[in-house]
Amino acid sequence: MEQHGTRPAQYGPRRSRAALPPQGRGGAAAGRPVGRPAGPRAGGGPARAATGRQTGRPGPAAAREADARRTMPNPRLTGLGSGLFCAAVMVVLGYLDALLLGASLTVYGVLFVPVCLLTAVWVRRGDLLTAPVVVPIAFAVGLVTVAESGDGGLGGRLMGIVTALATEAGWLYGGTLVAGSTVIVRRIRLMRRRRAAARNRPPE
To answer: Are 85 and 143 in contact (CB under 8 A)?
Structure first.
């Protein structure tokens, strides 16, 4: 008998075509970027604002305030330095008062108040409590240049200083009060800054 050559049937699943890369696919798959997660774009408004808050960059108002502080004189005096500064300034002002205005005690007292303010502002943080102590001493030292000398001797000079202290006690108390109030305000601000820094410090 004649046998016809027939191919045996191939069983099993047929091989599928190799998967094409996303670039070779048509339609919406070709235009969609690969590996980019869905969601808000990186660098958007909220994310950028959050990043700015985390980095702690100062805003425009803080930058302007920092520039103004850098342009203004801001020395820091020790306790001894603040006393020497206040005494030296009052002696110089007393000499000018004696030369130009005839040793007016009222003018001397008026000039004493802003000197007390500068002393309390420029003293460093660790020596804040020394400012209200040194300003009355500086007031008494500066009185040597404007107080009446009497007969010209040492006793007359001391009597003139005591008399000036008694008659100008209002300016003395006023300048000391200004220095003390400034120190208290600076102390309160320093304590608030320390509390805020401790509150914002990350836990260890």
So the answer is: no
